[in-house]
Amino acid sequence: MNDRPEPPPAERIIREVLAASAAEGGLGDVRAHAVPAPQRAWQLLLTEARLLHPGVWAASFAVMAACAGFSVFRGMFPQTLLGLAAPLVAGIGVAGLYGPERDRAFEVVAATPTSPRVLLLARATLVLGYDLALALLASGLLAVSGISLLGLTELVALWLGPMALLAGLSLLLSVCWNPGGAIGVALAAWSLSALAVTDIPVPPAYRLVWTSGPWTLALAALLGAAAIVLAGRGEPIRRSGATHPS
């Protein structure tokens, strides 16, 4: 015979919890305790920074440090190495920002009330800001050391446009396709840009696209904006592990 008391109805539990919360002031005017927008944005960035895989930070730092160190201590191809390394770390870094394949908290994040577009924007801001800081630091180191014949502005111009464009392309493909495909396309595009600095023939139009100019930055902004807008609108095509059919 079971002597355990029957649990109270769910309606009673909810009513009592709400009453207790109201008595303690927990259900006061939400607007009076609203967090300012800048503070909410900062809290979101801190939260997303903890959720991102540590390998994102470590890999970007390792590649940029190796590039700068090799250039400084060996004195070989400083601007070429920097111009190739910065776009590569940004393009691959943003490829895993969206989707269950490389997101350890994808299911938890998907259940939060925060818009997927806001979350993706926060993550892209973190990763691109980090990669940008690393590239600027490496450029400054090469400029100050005198290893490069170019000044800081010229060094930044070598990688800024390609870095933004490859990151925008990779982010859009990650949202619309999957991270693995985005990385593959980013590597293919990066390989062609690497050939552009050699004597191997590359179409002039491709060389023009992968330079720092208003057209490159505008195209990168367009690709990134499209990725943000499309985030959360249905499951990407052929995504493995999707929770809902496309």
From TrEMBL:
Residues passing through the membrane, by range: 55-73, 80-99, 164-192, 212-231
UniProt key word Membrane: yes
Domain of life: Bacteria
Keywords, in A-Z order: Membrane, Transmembrane, Transmembrane helix
Membrane listed as a keyword: yes
Name by which UniProt lists this protein: ABC transporter permease
